[in-house]
């Protein structure tokens, strides 16, 4: 990577979240518990879907993949953020910074495609129930996951190819707890307007396009249900509420950072705590507490463990 970039800057200093020692200790404890919840909650759902044959359906296949992506996305930033909270100097090497950026955008791209796939799954289940299994067959489900990874890699690499060759010869302070294109571009020793446009056109278009596609799909589902059930939308709202919650939480920080002109304030780093920590830890709770099949699967697992223990 050093051969591709003749930068003088070999490392960046992350300014982090807070300068108060008491606040740092408090945040370290909070985010440690949150990250533990992310790992345990999402991996529990992932393995529950794998080992419970009753959950071998398109919806839970996509949910298991979403849980795995949530673990990966949070792991790119949260562990280092926790470690840096107690460090006076929060240093990240140039190579590690670029690697972190790549994984963030790859995982983010995959998650966007998975959310689209889950919206399509709900549309098919609600609007075309008789054809659900034919439409959402295993081949289609696997294709969604593959398309997600391909999209994520193309999305990340198409921006990374421009950034890796930028000259970094001056300031190296990043006002955040992680590396990302907008903050890094502002540190380059060149006119960054063209590259900011590239990032906004890529990440901004992908974020807004996916968000509006999801919102339109939910509106179409609600209209379809409303026509079929003489105005009773309660069942559809119950089914879609978890998906809508995840979509709003996930896309709000992305739209703030990538769609509008790159922010000069520090508010974006606090917003992205939602994407890296809050949403991944809420997903297991949302899908577990609001999903009958998952709760039944947990009861079956509990009964099986009880039987194994006492028999």
Q: Indicate the proportion of strand residues.
A: under 5%
Summed over residues and divided by their number, the pLDDT gives a mean of 83
Order of helices and strands: EHHHEHHHEHHHHH
Largest sheet: 3 strands, mixed
Secondary structural class = mainly alpha
How helical, in percent, are the residues?
over 70%
Which regions contain 5 or more consecutive residues with pLDDT less than 50?
none
Using the CA coordinates, give the radius of gyration: 21 Å
Shape: globular
Number of helices: 11
Strand segment count? 3
Instruction: Give the distance, in angstroms, between the N- and C-terminal Cα atoms.
Output: 58 Å
- Enumerate the strands of the largest sheet in spatial order, edge to edge or round the barrel: 2-1-3
Pfam families: 7tm_4
Protein name: Olfactory receptor
GO molecular function: G protein-coupled receptor activity; olfactory receptor activity
Subcellular location: Cell membrane; Membrane
Describe the structure.
It is built from 11 helices and 3 strands, in the order βαααβαααβααααα. With 311 residues, it is mainly α. It has a 3-stranded mixed β-sheet. Helix 1 runs antiparallel to helix 2, helix 4 packs parallel to helix 8 and helix 9 runs antiparallel to helix 10. The termini are far apart. The relative contact order is 0.14. The mean pLDDT is 83.
